[in-house]
TrEMBL record:
<dbReference type="InterPro" id="IPR003593">
    <property type="entry name" value="AAA+_ATPase"/>
</dbReference>
<dbReference type="InterPro" id="IPR001270">
    <property type="entry name" value="ClpA/B"/>
</dbReference>
<protein>
    <submittedName>
        <fullName>MoxR-like ATPase</fullName>
    </submittedName>
</protein>
<dbReference type="InterPro" id="IPR027417">
    <property type="entry name" value="P-loop_NTPase"/>
</dbReference>
<feature type="domain" description="AAA+ ATPase">
    <location>
        <begin position="51"/>
        <end position="197"/>
    </location>
</feature>
<dbReference type="InterPro" id="IPR011704">
    <property type="entry name" value="ATPase_dyneun-rel_AAA"/>
</dbReference>
<comment type="similarity">
    <text>Belongs to the CbbQ/NirQ/NorQ/GpvN family.</text>
</comment>
<dbReference type="InterPro" id="IPR050764">
    <property type="entry name" value="CbbQ/NirQ/NorQ/GpvN"/>
</dbReference>
<dbReference type="Pfam" id="PF07728">
    <property type="entry name" value="AAA_5"/>
</dbReference>
Length: 290
């Protein structure tokens, strides 16, 4: 997506925000490595974030949700604070925690801010990955942060934390995976939802060329066909979505530089699956191509 293809007022908003964050080092800004057949995915995300909307990225594992979040960080020149949710994610993981420190020979209790507080106070971007993996009782903390109030009372300090105007929230979700729970409607309604589909065809070829060590053109084409066949079986319910993960496919491409492709697929994809039937199905598909 070219920025000059966006509406003029959106371009002006981006330029103004870029000025605010131009002093940050490149390491603090995400890379613009998102690739998709659908250019509207990135442009719609840029527009939504420019308007102060929260974005919820829906898609299977390895489809590029984190890449899109990093691309938005790059476009807006805003540092990205990340939270990787799990079943153990609690309010401390989001907001921060209290600890004892020593200053001038005296012990004192101080609050160490977490990613949510840092992003709010500095006007940066917040990325909440696998948001539906967090404990349901933890997520209501985010409600007032995600709506028009853009503030909350910190339970650890009793202080009111208010977000700077440039603060933005991007969350990612994989629906139906083990350990995930459906987002309640009150939380989901605070987001603009953008669906991120599987990468295929020429876009997948570019991803492999850019992200993996594999350079053999013939082998790359075989892995693209292999990915298509995996997706077909996912849609038929024969194998789980994680079997068609682009991340796992790239692992296999890397391994295929140093070992036979069939063994690379076994190590990179098949052996990650839980059931013998699923592993056998993946290896049967691979055997027809490699």
């Amino acid at each position: 997506m070219l920025l000059n293809e966006l509406p003029q007022n959106i371009q002006e908003m981006i330029q103004e925000r870029n000025k605010l964050f131009s002093h940050y080092d490149q390491e603090q800004i995400g890379e613009n490595g998102f690739l998709s057949d659908d250019s509207s995915i990135l442009s719609d995300a840029v527009i939504a974030l420019s308007l102060g909307k929260n974005i919820l990225l829906k898609g299977p594992t390895g489809s590029g949700k984190t890449k899109l979040a990093e691309a938005l960080s790059h476009i807006f020149r805003q540092p990205l604070h990340s939270v990787n949710c799990s079943v153990d994610t609690d309010s401390e993981a989001l907001l921060g925690f209290k600890t004892i420190s020593e200053k001038e020979g005296k012990n004192r209790i101080e609050f160490v801010p977490g990613p949510v507080v840092k992003a709010m106070e500095r006007g940066h971007l917040l990325y909440i990955d696998e948001i539906n993996m967090a404990k349901p009782e933890t997520l209501p903390i985010l409600n007032s942060i995600l709506d028009y109030r853009r503030k909350f009372t910190n339970p650890f300090t009793a202080n009111v934390v208010k977000a700077k105007e440039t603060f933005g929230v991007i969350a990612a979700i994989n629906e139906g995976y083990i350990g995930t729970v459906p987002l309640n409607e009150a939380l989901k309604n605070r987001f603009i939802v953008i669906d991120i589909p599987y990468v295929q065809g020429e876009v997948l070829k570019k991803v492999i060329q850019q992200e993996s060590l594999l350079k053999d053109e013939k082998l790359i084409q075989q892995f693209i066909r292999f990915s298509d066949d995996l997706l077909f079986q996912v849609r038929n319910g024969q194998i789980p979505e994680e079997a068609a993960s682009i991340r796992a496919l790239l692992d296999s491409c890397d391994l295929a530089v140093f070992m036979p492709p069939l063994r690379a697929v076994q190590r990179g994809i098949a052996d990650k699956l839980e059931e013998d039937r699923e592993r056998a199905a993946v290896m049967n598909i691979a055997a027809t191509l490699f």
